[in-house]
Amino acid sequence: MKRQPLWIPAAIVALFVPVFAGLGLWQLDRAAQKQALQQEYDRRSNEAPLRLGSEPRTVEELRYRRLTVRGKFDPEYQILIDNRVHRRAVGYFVLTPLRIEGGDTRVLVNRGWIPIGAGRERLPDAEPSPGVQEIAGVGTLPAERTYTLGEPVPPGRGWHPVWQYLDMKRYAAAVPFAVQPVVMLLDAGAPGGYVREWPRLDAGIALHHGYAVQWFALALLAVVISGMLVRRSLVRRTERKT
């Protein structure tokens, strides 16, 4: 019978257990981060609404705060965020800048999800209501990306209305006016919007926990397999001696 080297199970434990355990801990950390964000969102969104004016504000002042604002929508610099899915249907998020009353500053308002329609060749009609609007919503930040698709669109050289995702710095560089640093999620009951079933920030926590259990199970399995290999090797050595 061929001798089983003991370094093989030791290598399995040394190589795979730390990797699998580390991935499990990473999934638990992701779940904890989402939970913490949701708690901050719930706390700040339940505070008294903040009246948003044209004076510049910081991200920390506006993030997850309930906001009220008065102004006119500016459809010229509206963008559609592509590949947004609602109930298995593909469409766009409609983000329209609102010119805040009393100045030239805008705030981007996510007016909700709209279906793509017959095809991408023709964009859906998402013209906002004219005139002064009084709206309310929650200030949020778009998800960060590590890359950009294309360069910012310089003012006066045309406008690309369809974006793959929102980069606030890119948008601010592409428009000829100041922009508040957050996006308002328009309240579900407010007029002038589309489908607004805003997802919770802690969505997917159960999935992260499930993945963590799988990684920890794989780490345990690696230990069990290593133990079996060691036991078999020791049994074979004992048999040779007898």
Could you walk me through the main structural features you see in this protein, from its secondary elements to its overall organization?
By secondary structure, the protein is an alpha/beta fold. The chain has two domains: 68 residues; 140 residues. Helices cover 36% and strands 24% of the residues. The protein is built from four helices and eight strands. The protein has a five-stranded mixed beta barrel. Helix 2 links the parallel strand 1 and strand 2. The radius of gyration is 27 Å and the shape is elongated. About 5% of the residues have low confidence.
Question: Can you summarize this structure?
Answer:
The chain folds into 2 domains: 7-37 and 205-241; 47-186.
Please render the helix and strand layout as text.
Elements: H1 7-45, E1 50-51, H2 59-62, E2 66-73, E3 79-86, E4 89-100, E5 106-115, E6 132-140, E7 162-163, H3 168-174, E8 179-186, H4 205-241
Parallel strand pairs: 1-2, 3-7, 5-8
Antiparallel strand pairs: 2-4, 2-6, 3-4, 4-5, 6-8
Helix pairs in contact: 1-4
Domains, number: 2
- Intertermini distance: 14 Å
Placed side by side, the strands forming the largest sheet appear as 2-4-5-8-6
Shape, per Cα inertia axes:
elongated
Tags for this entry?
alpha/beta
